[in-house]
Amino acid sequence: MTEITQTMNELIDGYVKGLSTGKLMIPRCNECHEWNWYPREMCLRCGSSDRGLVEVRPEGTVFSWTRVQRALPPVQELETPYVILLVELSEANGVRVPCRAANTNVDPIIGQSIGLRMSSSKPPYLIGVDVLAVDDDIRSD
Amino acid sequence: MVDAVISGIGEVAPSRRLNLPASALVLRSIKDALADAGIEAADIEAVVTESSVTPVLAPIADVASAAQLRDLRMSAMTSPVAAGIFQAIGIADLMVSSGAAKHVLVYYGLDWGTKPLGPSAYHEAMLAKSFIENPPGFAGPPLYFAVIAKRYANVYGLSDDELEIALSEIVLANRFNAVAHPGAQAREPMDLVAYRESPMIAEPLRKADCALLSDGAIAVIVSQRKCVDTSRHVGVRLSGWAWAQDSVSDSSFYSQSELPLLKAASIAGPDALQRSGMSTNDIDLVEVYDCFSIATILQLESLGFCPPGSGPSYVSGGSLRFNGSHPTNTHGGLLSHGYVMGANHFIEAVQQLRGEAGERQVSDASTAMVGAGPGRQYTALVLRRDDD
C-alpha cells in the first residue's frame, strides 16, 4: 500500500508555517522534482504523493498586479487602496505567489525584480518590496 | 442517429432581487419551456444539469417532484458551473440522438441577486485560496481578472489608455444590446463618459466591467424531432459541441495558468466547429461568458475569432453590437442582461436563430457559437438554424 507522506493540507500548512518563521517554503515533488504549486494531493506531473517543502530565496519578478480600490469578501475589512502582485519566484521555476506590495502608490512594472518579506500577521502573507521601499525602511529605522 | 432539435426554451428574466428561491425560478422556467415545446411534464424522460450550484439550490430530486416529471427514466449531472450548464445541453443532445430519451430537460437557476455573496463564497470554499490568496488580499473574482487584464496589456504592448478603450468597447456594446432587450437587467444607456464615472474596483476593472448580480433561471428541452410539432418555431439544433479542460486546479487557475490564452477554450472552440463542419467565418453571432469585460477578449481570441493580441481592434468601433460586424452577447451578456451564469446566453442564441429577438435581432442569423468557462474548463456549443 502506498504511504502518503504529504497531503495537500500538510503542504499548505507547511507553506503557512514557513511564512510565520520567516521562510518561503514551496512544495516540491520528491520523485520528479516538479514544484507542486498550489499544493495538490498528488504531483501534477508524475502523480507521486511523496512531496517535500523546499526553502527558496524570497525574490522574483512581477508577473502581474492590480491596485484594489474596493476590498471584496472575504477580505472586505482590508484598508484600500492596496496593491496585489503576482510574483514569479526566481528559485522555483513557474511558481507564482500572490503578495501585497509594501508601497501602494507606485505602479509596479511587470517583469521587474522584487524582493519579498513576510508579514507578522496571522495568518502571515508575503509582502512585495521594491528597492525604493527597502531604502525607505532602512531610513525609517 | 436520431435527429435532435432544441424544442423548448424558458427563462425567468434576470433581476437584482426577486426574493424567491432559485428552485421556484427554475420551476417557472420549466413550465415556460414545456409550453414552448408544446409537450407535457410527463413527456420528459431525462434531466441533466450542472453539478456545483444546482445540487444545493435546485436539486434534481426536488425539481423532478415539484415539476411533476412523472416518467423520468434518466438523470445526470455534469461539470461545475457555466461550462457544466452548456455541457448538460450537449449531453442532453447525446441522449436524444442516441435514442435513449425522446425529450430531455436541462435547467439552471440561481439567486445570487438575493444572496450576493454567491460568487465570492464559491471561490472562498477552496482551501488553497483561504491560506495562499486571501491573507495578502488577493480575493474576489474581480481581482483575478484585473491581474489578467494587466498581464494582457503587458504581453501585447497596450498602454493604460488603450486597455481602457478596449474594455469600454465591450461594456458599451453589451449595454447597447441590453437597451434593446426588454428582459435585460441593466438598460440605462451608457456612453464613454458614464463608463469612466463607474467606480474602480480593481485596476483596470470598474464596476461596469463586472458581471451583475442576479436572480434568474432557464430551462431548455432537447427532443427527438419526430416527437414535436416542428411548425411551432424555426427549428434550431446543436450542430456540434465540445468540452475541454486545463490540467491546473480550479483554485490555482487565476494565478498559475499560462494566460492570456485560455487553454480549454482554445481546444473546445475549434473542436466544436470541426464537429459542425464549420469555421469561425461561418458563425453569425457569438455569446460568451463575460464575467468581466476582459473575459470577452480572452475568449474571442482563444476560440479563434481573432488572433491572440488582436482582441482590442476586433471589438473596436462598436463591432460587438447586435447590428455591428461581430455581433456578440447580443442580449447584453452577464454585464448588462444578467448573471444567470451564462445560461441566459444560450436562450439568447436560440431566440436569435429563431428570429424571435425583436428589436435586437441580428439580421440573417443562422449560426451561433455559445461558450462558457472561462477558466479551467470550457464548453463550446455551435447552434444552427434548420433552414441554413
Uncertain segments of chain B of ≥5 residues (pLDDT<50)?
none
Terminal CA distance of chain B: 20 Å
Structural class of chain B: alpha/beta
* Beta-strand percentage range of chain A: 25-35%
Strands side by side in the biggest sheet of chain A: 3-4-5-7-6
- What is the CA–CA distance across the termini of chain A? 56 Å
Number of strands of chain B: 11
Order of helices and strands of chain B: EHEHHEHEHHHHHEEEEHHEHHHHEE
Largest interface: A-B, 43 and 39 residues
Helix-residue proportion of chain B: 25-40%
Q: How many helices of chain A does DSSP assign?
A: 2
Mean pLDDT across all amino acids of chain B: 95
Shape descriptor of chain B reads globular
Record the strand order, biggest sheet of chain B. Answer: 1-7-4-2-3
Instruction: Catalogue the unreliable spans of chain A.
Output: 132-141
This entry's quaternary arrangement is heterodimer
Q: Over the alpha carbons, how many angstroms does the gyration radius of chain B reach? A: 19 Å
User: Strand percentage of chain B, roughly?
Assistant: 15-25%
Topology diagram in text:
The complex is a heterodimer of chains A (141) and B (388).
Chain A: H1 8-20, E1 25-29, E2 51-55, E3 59-68, E4 82-89, E5 96-101, E6 113-118, E7 126-129, H2 131-140
Parallel strand pairs in A: 5-7
Antiparallel strand pairs in A: 1-2, 3-4, 3-6, 4-5, 6-7
Chain B: E1 4-15, H1 22-37, E2 46-49, H2 54-57, H3 60-66, E3 74-77, H4 81-97, E4 103-111, H5 118-124, H6 127-133, H7 141-155, H8 160-179, H9 192-197, E5 200-202, E6 205-206, E7 215-224, E8 236-245, H10 253-256, H11 263-276, E9 285-288, H12 293-303, H13 311-314, H14 333-336, H15 343-354, E10 367-372, E11 377-385
Parallel strand pairs in B: 2-3, 2-4, 9-10
Antiparallel strand pairs in B: 1-7, 4-7, 5-6, 8-11, 10-11
